[in-house]
Amino acid sequence: MRFSFIKLLLPILIGGITHTAFAQTDVANMRNSQMSFTRVAQAYAKYNDSLRVLFQKSGLSYPPKDLYIRDFKSQNEMELWAREKPSDPYKLVKLYRICALSGILGPKRYEGDRQVPEGSYFIEDFNPQSDFFLSMLLNYPNYSDVILGDKKKPGGDIYIHGGCVTVGCVPLTNEVISELYVACLNAKMNGQNYIPVSIYPTRFNKRGLDFLGKAYQADQDKQKFWVNLKSGYDYFEEHRKLLPVMYTPEGKYVF
């Protein structure tokens, strides 16, 4: 586990992602570096063409220009969305299965609590030689987590990864992480510096809200936190677009 206040200096307006293009040499260097690892090269060879067909069937160009990922802990589901330009609504590309879950519903608040974070994040790094096959680092803890979590040990090193085991990350099968890794890596090399990732306890529909209300009725802190997250969820459900994510000094999300 690790934590650095350097994370606080990273962009927090992750909903209004801008696509500042990499210099051509930077893209080439990243591609050469990633492809030098057998797992990445094999994943690219196996999934890149089928991903191209998948995106084209959704009316989207490939490699992707703008991706968005949504996770739902209670349903063990992950959605991959994409769009052509910032003014477009996102289109659902594929639904994946999250194959394991640790902890209970609710945000991560300290190192060792085995909780999968909840909130708004982005992919910070790509690890081609992970202990869990392939992995993509999330920028946990974000500003909200720093304010509301343990001040000394909020935890860290939260990944979307393969291996289908977890103590607080988002685990996928090796096949699924291979395909998702290729899609996200292509978006990164195509200029999307920060791929947003939203993690929710459940889908905030009637069934999900009824469950949260009954199962966590006594936990007012979680209830208030989920009401806060729901405003961003609702906007995306209505418009298929993301609002910029900002925070109050108390750690509340402002969408």
From TrEMBL:
Pfam families: YkuD. SUPFAM superfamilies: L,D-transpeptidase catalytic domain-like. Pathway: Cell wall biogenesis; peptidoglycan biosynthesis. The active site is at 161 (proton donor/acceptor), 169 (nucleophile). It comes from the Bacteria. Keywords: Cell shape, Cell wall biogenesis/degradation, Peptidoglycan synthesis, Signal, Transferase. Residues 67-200 form the L,D-TPase catalytic domain. Residues 1-23 form the signal peptide. Belongs to the YkuD family. This is L,D-TPase catalytic domain-containing protein.
